[in-house]
């Protein structure tokens, strides 16, 4: 679906870089092509090639990451005395089927879909790069800008560490990104100072015992009871060992044990996630979770093996960078184009960049105004109002120009 906003902005005349109708149409077509050909994390070869070809046609020199997918591209000539603003997009899809009906650009790849909006994020950053490249050619871009097309956001711990390792933040002063939000109308963005997403880790637990007959649980380890107590007690114990405002939450998604009603099993497994709103509590979470599991398993005479996989810290928006995005939006679209947003329990590997440089993530509205269908991310029927692409490009180009003036 497509709807172009006709809202004029009070400051647009002061900032160059308005999108032509031809570029708007091209970007919609580019997004639809990506949507039809989603690729999983670290497998985004077609996506990487498509981005590279278009940037090179604009006279830019993108560099594919050492990992084989994803790119870094500078618009303008970097100057150590003028650190860059980086615009980041994630390019991978999800391992779920596209369930949209009567849609000409449905995924053509079985059990793969861009159900999180990464195709939109990618198109927004590419569109901003094309506009900024044109401004650079006209001598209207005072400071270089870096484009980051990052692979594997959906794969823990994300592709951001690989970008950083490949020098993606060298010479970068601050970084910005967007994430589609189906609860916000197209034409608007949601902004927040401080934490905007949660930390997210993966937790896998194995419990073992000698097994036995259900007639004599006192002679062995009652493993089903043990795994049930771990499942119910660990979240409660962990929650009582941190400040409640930290929002440290252990939630299970899988539990397995046993094969017969009269046999006490020898092995049980649980897996789930650990989420946390607070950065300090996230750093403490592995030790707290390990201790709670060991205590409860020992109480029931079960041997525990814990695999705690670090995921991502929370995204904590830098106030100054958040205000830069606010100024960029209001310059292009006016004060009503910005709204507040709450912190979510979703994880985002954009947070790894913020361990190195200040930055901010905005929630890009993709809901068609007046739409009554309730949509969410990571669902097979996810889609966007494509006018959001223009909004994202406008915000990023304005942010780059305002950053250059500071």
Q: Spell out the helices and strands N to C.
A: HHEEEHEHEEEEEHEEEHEEHEEH
The assigned CATH architecture of the largest domain is 3-Layer(aba) Sandwich
For the record, give the distance between the C-alpha atoms at the N and C termini, rounded to a whole number.
37 Å
Pick out the low-confidence regions: 1-13
In CATH, what is the homologous superfamily of the largest domain? Zn peptidases
What's the total count of β strands? Answer: 16
Main beta sheet: 8 strands, mixed
Task: Determine and state the CATH class of the largest domain.
Answer: Alpha Beta
What's the overall average pLDDT, rounded?
A: 94
Here the CATH topology of the largest domain equals Aminopeptidase
Rg over CA atoms:
24 Å
* Helix percentage: 25-40%
Total helical elements: 8
Question: What strand order characterises the main sheet?
Answer: 1-2-4-3-5-16-6-15
Q: β content, as a range?
A: 15-25%
Our count of domains comes out at 2
């Amino acid at each position: 679906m497509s709807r172009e906003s006709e809202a004029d902005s009070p400051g647009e005349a002061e900032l160059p870089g308005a999108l032509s109708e031809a570029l708007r149409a091209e970007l919609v077509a580019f997004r639809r092509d990506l949507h039809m050909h989603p690729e999983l994390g670290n497998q985004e070869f077609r996506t990487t090639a498509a981005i590279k070809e278009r940037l090179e046609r604009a006279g830019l020199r993108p560099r594919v990451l050492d990992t084989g997918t994803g790119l870094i591209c500078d618009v303008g000539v970097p100057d150590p005395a003028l650190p860059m603003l980086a615009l980041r997009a994630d390019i991978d899809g999800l391992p779920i089927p596209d369930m949209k009906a009567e849609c000409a650009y449905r995924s053509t790849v079985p059990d793969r879909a861009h159900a999180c909006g990464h195709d939109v994020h990618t198109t927004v950053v590419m569109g901003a790069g094309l506009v900024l490249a044109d401004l650079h050619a006209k001598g209207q871009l005072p400071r270089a800008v870096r484009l980051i097309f990052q692979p594997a956001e959906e794969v823990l711990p994300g592709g951001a560490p690989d970008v950083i390792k490949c020098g993606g933040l060298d010479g970068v002063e601050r970084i910005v990104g967007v994430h589609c939000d189906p609860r916000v109308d197209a034409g608007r963005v949601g902004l927040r100072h401080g934490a905007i997403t949660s930390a997210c880790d993966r937790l896998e637990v194995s419990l073992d015992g000698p097994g036995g007959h259900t007639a004599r649980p006192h002679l062995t380890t009652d493993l089903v009871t043990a795994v049930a107590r771990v499942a119910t007690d660990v979240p409660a114990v962990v929650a009582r060992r941190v400040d409640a405002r930290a929002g440290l939450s252990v939630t299970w998604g899988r539990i397995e044990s046993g094969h017969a009603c009269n046999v006490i099993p020898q092995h049980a497994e649980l897996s789930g996630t650990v989420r946390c709103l607070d950065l300090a509590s996230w750093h403490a979470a592995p030790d707290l979770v390990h201790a709670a599991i060991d205590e409860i398993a020992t109480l029931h005479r079960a041997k525990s093996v814990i695999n705690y996989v670090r995921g991502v810290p929370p995204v904590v928006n830098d106030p100054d960078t958040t205000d830069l995005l606010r100024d960029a939006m209001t310059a292009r679209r006016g004060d009503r184009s910005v709204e507040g947003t709450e912190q979510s329990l979703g994880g985002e590997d954009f947070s790894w960049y913020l361990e190195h440089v200040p930055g901010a993530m905005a929630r890009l509205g993709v809901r068609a105004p007046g739409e009554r269908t309730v949509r969410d991310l990571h669902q097979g029927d996810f889609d966007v109002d494509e006018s959001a692409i223009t909004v994202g490009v406008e915000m990023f180009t304005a942010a780059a120009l305002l950053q250059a003036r500071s």
